[in-house]
């Protein structure tokens, strides 16, 4: 059995993130992590925590050094780099130098457990690899596509999960009540994701972040998932279980576990938390 926590978009290093879907408290990250540790102690064990990206709001030695320390938890923490983690051209060097424990030696890597392979592959954004400069055109480098295909072809008898920062799907109208899909990705990137999902029989789930919205799309018994921001009210994170070749997922809030008071400020966006079906897989 494999059990891990998935959270994202903590945006450490700013009071006011440039993008948020609900009231954000990035400065409360240390307290939220303490509350999550208490949850792990009560409801665990878990094997590791996977951060889906945008751990920091902009790349600096100071921000990386802070999160490298803050995310020293009772279990290993891994990171799929997001656009806000890559705001300078030597960001990858800085991450590998100052926080190597978030990566297994490489920015694209696989976490192997007894029954699961989880592949962490952060998508690109613009013309310079691993550098975000406001352009949002998600894609993979050729070497990343080879990595994904090679890794997904190994160990066909176990469950595979892929983690990338930018989602392959928009937020459904049934969830938002809007007229159109919200945050629909560029068609080429969307097709890439769905093709990877179709091609690899044992790829059961793709985890993404970036939108700060909980979603769960089913695609012929497989799942595309995104998470809301861990530092936005009500401070959700996901617990993912893999057992007997089946994946299950639950979403948990830390709102009642904190010592500070935080309220929803935008009740027109309660869809961010999602319906029960957007927050869970299986029972
Ligand atoms: Fe992002």
- Note the gap between the termini: 16 Å
Mean pLDDT: 97
CATH architecture: 4-Layer Sandwich
Look at the helices and sheets and give the structural class: alpha/beta
Oligomer: single chain
Q: How many domains, as an integer?
A: 1
Bound molecules: fe (ii) ion
Q: Name the CATH superfamily assignment.
A: Metallo-dependent phosphatases
What is the number of helices? 7
* Largest sheet, strands/sense/barrel: 6 strands, mixed
Query: Which CATH class?
Result: Alpha Beta
CATH fold-level label: Purple Acid Phosphatase, chain A, domain 2
Low-confidence stretches: none
* N-to-C series of helices and strands: EHEHEHEEHEHHEEEEEH
Q: What is the radius of gyration computed over CA atoms, rounded to a whole number of angstroms? A: 17 Å
Beta strands, count? 11
Q: What order do the strands of the largest sheet run in, or round the barrel if closed?
A: 4-5-6-7-9-8
Shape: globular
Provide an overview of this structure.
Helix 1 links the parallel strand 1 (2-7) and strand 2. The two termini are 16 Å apart. This protein is 23% helix and 21% strand. The strands form two sheets. Strands 4-5-6-7-9-8 form a six-stranded mixed β-sheet. It has a five-stranded mixed β-sheet with strand order 3-2-1-10-11, with no helix packed on it. It is an alpha/beta fold and 283 residues long. The model has no long low-confidence stretch (mean pLDDT 97). It has one domain (2-279): Metallo-dependent phosphatases (Purple Acid Phosphatase, chain A, domain 2), CATH 3.60.21. The chain has helices spanning 29-43, 61-70, 91-98, 142-153, 173-176, 187-199, 276-279; strands at 2-7, 48-51, 77-79, 109-112, 116-120, 159-163, 203-208, 215-219, 222-226, 236-243, 246-253. The protein has seven helices and eleven strands. The longest helix has 15 residues, at 29-43. Fe (ii) ion binds at residues 54, 82-84, 165, 210.
């Amino acid at each position: 059995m494999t059990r891990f926590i998935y959270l994202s978009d903590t945006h450490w290093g700013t009071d006011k993130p440039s993008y948020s879907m609900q009231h954000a408290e990035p400065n409360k990250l240390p307290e939220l992590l303490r509350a999550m540790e208490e949850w792990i102690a009560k409801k665990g064990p878990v094997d590791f925590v996977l951060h889906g990206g945008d751990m920091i709001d902009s790349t600096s030695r100071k921000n990386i050094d802070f999160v490298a320390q803050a995310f020293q938890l009772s279990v290993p923490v891994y990171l799929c780099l997001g656009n806000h983690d890559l705001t300078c051209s030597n960001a990858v060097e800085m991450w590998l130098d100052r926080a190597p424990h978030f990566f297994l030696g490489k920015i694209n890597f696989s976490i192997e457990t007894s029954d699961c392979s989880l592949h962490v592959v952060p998508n690109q954004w613009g013309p310079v690899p691993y550098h975000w400069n406001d352009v949002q055109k998600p894609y993979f480098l050729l070497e990343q596509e080879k990595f994904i295909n090679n890794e997904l072809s190994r160990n066909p008898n176990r469950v595979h999960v892929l983690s990338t920062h930018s989602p392959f799907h928009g937020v459904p109208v049934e969830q938002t009540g809007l007229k159109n899909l919200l945050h629909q990705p560029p068609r080429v990137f969307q097709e890439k994701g769905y093709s990877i999902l179709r091609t690899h029989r044992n790829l059961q789930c793709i985890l993404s972040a970036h939108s700060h919205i909980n979603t769960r799309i089913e695609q012929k018994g497989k799942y595309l998932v995104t998470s809301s921001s861990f530092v936005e009210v009500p401070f959700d994170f996901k617990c993912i279980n893999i057992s007997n070749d089946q994946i299950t997922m639950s979403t948990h809030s830390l709102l009642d576990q904190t010592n500070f008071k935080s309220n929803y400020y935008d009740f027109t966006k309660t869809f961010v938390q999602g319906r029960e079906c957007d927050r869970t897989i299986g029972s």
